[in-house]
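Async update (no meeting this week)

Hi team, since we skipped the sync, here's where things stand on the single-chain job. The sequence we agreed to prioritize is pasted below, unchanged from the tracker. I ran it this morning and attached the output directly underneath so nobody has to dig for it. Comments welcome in thread, and please keep replies under the output.
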Amino acid sequence: METIGTSHTVHRFDYELNEIAKLVDKMGALAVEQLRRAVKSLKKEDPTRAHKVINRDRKLNDLDVEADEKIIQLIAKRAPMASDLRQIITLGKVVTDLERTGDEARKIAKLCVRIYESDHHIPSEHILRDIYSMSKYVNQMLKLAMDAFSNLNVQQAFGVLLMDEELEEQFDATLRHLSTFVMQDSRNVGHFVDIVLGIRALERFGGHAKNIAGHVIFLATAHDVRHLDADEIQSLLNIEDSP
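Output:
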């Protein structure tokens, strides 16, 4: 993450702030990898692989705790000015969203365990395909949000907000698609519930990516855009149309 504003006379503050930003980047990369591995365990019908994803979530939790401790220490030691405090508090919010993306990835791994460690009817590839496509989409959202964070790129962050609108449409379409499998075969009812919970986890994963994009905009511009729609944000920040 690039430093905002004028250079500090106390260079130690800049160093400590950048150390927290590095932790955030590390958490982002780990969250992306966790979802990728969780979905792969589902594709491979491999609950052993899924258990590894579940256990690996502790790494994200540990980084969450470490980042929080560094943030508290930085505030206590440096008594930051208003603009610096905005950066620190917003970093804390990004950390929280990243930790929660890990929780959502873990839910996908747990879905794999429930399906393939039970003696129940195994769902077809068709009923699972929406999880695969949506997981790629939300992981791309998080990658772009973290790139925007690293570069304080408002245009890129705004693009993630637009992707979230498309995600909501995907979610609704997926629910309609899944309902057809229940009508075709009553044995799919149990899987329908589990898979809808998995789709909901992915939708929330994307929601956290959206939150991070909003945090980036706040870091870069000091504008809180959490409760604005895309047109309002575009007008407020004079953002060009995203490709």
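Quick observations from my side:
Helices lie at 11-43, 47-78, 82-116, 125-151, 154-184, 189-221, 230-237.
The chain has one domain: 11-237.
Reply here if anything looks off.
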